[in-house]
Amino acid sequence: MQKLSSRLRHSFVHRTVLDNGITLITVENNVADIIAARLFFKAGSCREPRSKAGLAHLLASTMTKGIPGLSATEIAEKIESIGASVGTDAAADYFVTSIKTVSADFSAILALVAAIVRSPTLPEREVELEQKLTLQSIRSQQEQPFNIAYHQLREAMYAEHPYGISSLGTEATVAQIARDDLAEYHQTYFRPDNLIISLSGRIAPEEAVELIDRVFGDWKAPETALPPLKLPSLTPNPSRHLKPQATQQAIVVLGYLTAAIASDDYIPLKLLSTYLGNGLSSRLFVELREKRGLAYDVSAFYPTRLDASQFVAYIGTAPNNSAIALQGLHAEIERLCHAPLSLEELQASKNKLLGQYALGKQTNAEIAQSYGWYETLGVGIEFDETFQEGVREVTPEIAQEVACRYFSPAPYISLVGPEEAIAQATL
């Protein structure tokens, strides 16, 4: 067994760094005879050339389609024969491979996944097939009014930043990705010193270290350094964008550039998002749908991001209500700057946010995902406790101050719907 280069225990979570640079996080949970794992690489669409956007997604789609000695069908048969599940996915800030199986079969499946992440053959035929399927998905999104409105908003807000493009890429960029591009991306970012393995289930920390060392210990980090993550700086430039379409409803979307997960403003913004647009009791739902009847659908969201995120509020409404819906949506967001939340409103939002946070970590798969994600985003496993403590410490004054910081400037606006209706929608 390799010597441990570092190790720390945080509550019931164990974190170990192996000599080859792999970070291992283990949560021993003996409730069920299941082990779930997440293998996170600091990759994703943020680290692909803009001219080849969708590269990480296409790699995720083809990773399991072949390894030396096994075809895509044979890999699938090995996984399905024991009832396990294996999947791959690429997001903006990470690339992840997922495993779930009974404890007795975990070692065998882990060895198979190790071969998948280390030595995918990326058969040309499979790459071409997944390329066609990705292009179909992109075209399908272009037919959905909300996706059109959100894409329009995202492009305006992020300009040349990778967050401005869907992780699927565009038709133009995906069409020119070749197998060699996938192989080069894989060779660059799939290395042990760029890997976080997060385990949860019926496995002791010492056993997990021994197993990961046995399966991955011979994988050596290259002498070349990882390419540094270089993201363009963002300068807010609020603008209004229209996409005329003969739709049955108009889509109105407002966006504000906001903070990354490492910011002190992250937690207050999560609370504001919960208060404003999370669920049937949220401010937007009650005011714009229940009281005023303006919305088919209304909500707000604030994604967790490594770099600058966005606070987005949207409403689907009858086309002839586009103007008043836009004004109502903006007024509810502005209200957060002008009037502090009451103690009762803030506490209700805290309860909802913390409750949903707890419910999101019930299964081994959810636990493995959470801790691996924290580590990948650079906030560490301690974030599990600091987040909950931080939520409890937010006051109405803090929430209002953060709201004023981000929502006082004019928003980005995106509208999709009948031309005459959306043309009249202004602030």
Describe the protein's architecture and organization.
- The protein has a seven-stranded mixed β-sheet with strand order 1-2-3-9-4-8-7, sandwiched between helices. A five-stranded mixed β-sheet has the order 10-14-11-13-12, sandwiched between helices.
- 44% of the residues lie in helices and 20% in strands.
- The chain has 16 helices and 14 strands.
- It starts with a strand and ends with a helix.
- Residues 1-10 have low confidence and may be disordered.
- β1 and β2 form a beta hairpin.
- With 427 residues, the chain is an alpha+beta fold.
Element pattern in H and E: EEEEHEEHEEHHHHHEHEEHHEEHHHHHEH
Number of strands: 14
Main-sheet strand order equals 1-2-3-9-4-8-7
User: What Rg is obtained from the alpha carbons, in whole angstroms?
Assistant: 23 Å
Helix content: 40-55%
Q: What is the global morphology?
A: globular
**Class from secondary-structure proportions:** alpha+beta
Give the termini separation: 65 Å
Tally of alpha and pi helices: 16
Sequence-ordered SSE layout with sheet pairings:
Layout: E1 4-10, E2 13-18, E3 23-28, E4 34-41, H1 55-62, E5 66-67, E6 70-71, H2 72-80, E7 85-90, E8 95-102, H3 103-118, H4 124-141, H5 145-158, H6 171-175, H7 179-189, E9 195-201, H8 205-216, E10 240-244, E11 250-257, H9 266-277, H10 283-291, E12 297-301, E13 310-317, H11 322-338, H12 343-359, H13 364-376, H14 383-393, H15 396-407, E14 412-417, H16 419-423
Parallel strand pairs: 3-9, 10-14
Antiparallel strand pairs: 1-2, 2-3, 4-8, 4-9, 5-6, 7-8, 11-13, 11-14, 12-13
Helix pairs in contact: 1-4, 1-7, 9-12, 9-15, 10-11, 11-15
